[in-house]
Amino acid sequence: MMGILEGKRLLIAGVLTEASIAYSAAKVAQQEGAQLVLSNFGRALKLTERIAKRLPEPAPVIELDVSNDAHLAALADRVGEHLDGLDGVLHSIGFAPQNALGDAFTETPWSDVSTAVQISTWSFAALTHACRPLFGEQASVVGLTFDASRAWPVYGWMGVAKAGLESTAR
């Protein structure tokens, strides 16, 4: 029996551990017939490479730092080494420096706020733009977020960044 994603080609950005939503999405996508490329960067890249081997079918992993213009510029070529196009992208990326989390909201320096927004919000648009050369006519981009309709004091500036992600996706 064919799965709902049979023959679909997906980039999943942000797989880190078996507990991550992105890992579960990757596993189900493969079970439904999708071909995958995973991405991460820095120290997390090694974790992603290890976890990729635990999928039903080991998936290739490419390095992608969404704050690095050179990585974004090379993304289509890097994905193209493994897939001949993309039918979808899952953006499961978020980060904020420790100072941008918690209740010191008004004391957070702009450098930390801008990092949170760049990685957690702007990267959705940047990732979409970088993948456009690979997109088929009906490609989809999905971003994972956290409930931004409520104030979560411990979430600090990440709440703002995730609200921005939701707005960017709209």
Give the arrangement of secondary structure elements.
Blueprint: E1 9-13, H1 21-31, E2 35-40, H2 43-52, E3 61-63, H3 69-80, E4 86-91, H4 110-131, E5 135-143, H5 157-169
Parallel strand pairs: 1-2, 1-4, 2-3, 4-5
Helix pairs in contact: 3-4, 4-5
Order of helices and strands: EHEHEHEHEH
Q: Give the number of helices.
A: 5
Count of structural domains: 1
The low-confidence runs, each spanning 5 or more residues with pLDDT under 50, are none
End-to-end C-alpha gap: 34 Å
Secondary-structure class = alpha/beta
Q: Might you state the CATH topology name?
A: Rossmann fold
Strand elements, count: 5
Which architecture name does CATH use? 3-Layer(aba) Sandwich
Instruction: Give the C-level CATH assignment.
Output: Alpha Beta
The main sheet orders its strands as: 3-2-1-4-5
- Round the Cα radius of gyration to an integer and report it: 16 Å
Portion in helices: 40-55%
What is the assembly state of the chains in this entry? single chain
- Describe the sheet with the most strands: 5 strands, parallel
Approximate shape: globular
Strand content: 15-25%
Description:
This protein has about 170 residues and is α/β, with parallel strands linked by helices. The chain has one domain (about 10-170): Rossmann fold. Helices cover about 40% and strands about 15% of the residues. It has helices at about 20-30, 45-50, 70-80, 110-130, 155-170; strands at about 10-15, 35-40, 60-65, 85-90, 135-145. β1, α1 and β2 (about 35-40) form a beta-alpha-beta unit. The radius of gyration is 16 Å and the shape is globular. The N and C termini lie far apart (about 35 Å). The model has no long low-confidence stretch (mean pLDDT about 95).
